[in-house]
């Protein structure tokens, strides 16, 4: 897919609802339906031990989200972003830090719920320079209950673009301290081959987040010599599968659940090609490191 700058996007400087309907392949009736009564279904899902409410779009709302994703995904984004971008993944995100020996990971608290319709509006109004009514229409279609939609195909990329200036500021801080920086949704990783002043970096990141009405998630703040980055372990310049994945595959073999074994082993080999076909319950290497949250 050919990438272009934001000023080449069909959405840029959009001021006509007629043109908006043409771009989205919808008529007036569907536009009203998507803005006044956006269609979603809602269910609760347990993710990493916490229950989250997921509201994926359906019907015409889903088609509009898919079309807007197609348009936004053509815009050039920074190399530090690894979520919502074709050809980049959580493993690519971890691999960026493979030469490092010290890792600081920071998550943003309640990132999607805190990314409000107002932030999405200003994305299209200020960054895309759309007219106020077009920016408002897009913001209404792309949010649910005044926040970014959990479960929409476009939300990952939209979360970055809606906070573009904030993440650019954070990248400047990373450069200031000579750190490698990567972003996967709200998971930020800073790393270096040398020990660095984590407290100074955290202080500056907190200030930047606060300006945009975000906070650091204290329970996910980590500084370690072993990287645990978006579910991938980095130890001694190697990408490794987590111990719990070995245990899961071992237990699945005991249950003879071949379908799940194949699925989980495929995921593991994507991270670590040398992942054994028949893993032992206790892996032949140590991934032990402190999981205590830093005092902030």
TrEMBL record:
SUPFAM superfamilies: DNA/RNA polymerases. InterPro entries: DNA/RNA_pol_sf (IPR043502), Reverse_transcriptase_msDNA (IPR000123), RT_dom (IPR000477). Pfam families: RVT_1. Keywords: Antiviral defense, Magnesium, Metal-binding, Nucleotidyltransferase, RNA-directed DNA polymerase, Transferase. Residues 1-234 form the Reverse transcriptase domain. Signal peptide: none annotated. This is Reverse transcriptase family protein. PROSITE patterns: RT_POL. Belongs to the bacterial reverse transcriptase family. It comes from Pseudofrancisella aestuarii. GO terms for molecular function: RNA-directed DNA polymerase activity. Its EC number is 2.7.7.49. The lineage of its organism: Bacteria, Pseudomonadati, Pseudomonadota, Gammaproteobacteria, Thiotrichales. CDD domains: RT_Bac_retron_II (cd03487). It is an enzyme of class 2 (transferase).
């Amino acid at each position: 897919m050919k990438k272009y700058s934001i000023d080449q996007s069909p959405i840029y400087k959009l001021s006509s609802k007629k043109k908006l309907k043409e771009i989205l392949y919808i008529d007036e009736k569907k536009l009203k339906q998507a803005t006044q009564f956006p269609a979603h279904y809602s269910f609760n899902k347990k993710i990493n031990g916490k229950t989250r409410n997921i509201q994926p779009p359906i019907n015409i709302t889903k088609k509009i989200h898919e079309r807007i994703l197609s348009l936004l995904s053509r815009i050039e984004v920074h190399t530090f972003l690894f979520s919502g971008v074709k050809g980049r993944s959580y493993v690519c995100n971890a691999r960026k830090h493979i030469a490092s020996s010290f890792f600081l990971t920071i998550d943003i608290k309640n990132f999607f719920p805190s990314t409000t319709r107002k932030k999405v509006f200003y994305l299209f109004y200020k960054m895309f320079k759309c007219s106020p009514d077009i920016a408002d229409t897009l913001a209404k279609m792309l949010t649910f209950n005044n926040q970014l939609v959990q479960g929409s195909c476009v939300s990952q990329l939209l979360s970055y673009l809606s906070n573009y200036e904030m993440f650019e500021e954070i990248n400047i801080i990373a450069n200031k301290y000579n750190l490698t920086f990567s972003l996967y949704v709200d998971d930020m990783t800073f790393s270096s081959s040398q020990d660095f002043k984590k407290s100074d970096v955290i202080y500056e990141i907190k200030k930047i987040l606060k300006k945009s009405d975000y906070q650091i998630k204290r329970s996910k703040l980590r500084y370690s010599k072993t990287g645990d980055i978006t579910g991938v372990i980095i130890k001694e310049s190697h990408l490794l599968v987590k111990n719990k994945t070995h245990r899961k595959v071992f237990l699945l073999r005991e249950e003879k659940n071949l379908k799940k074994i194949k699925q989980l082993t495929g995921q593991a080999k994507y991270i670590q090609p040398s992942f054994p076909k028949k893993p032992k319950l206790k892996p032949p290497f140590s991934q032990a490191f402190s999981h205590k949250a830093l005092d902030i």
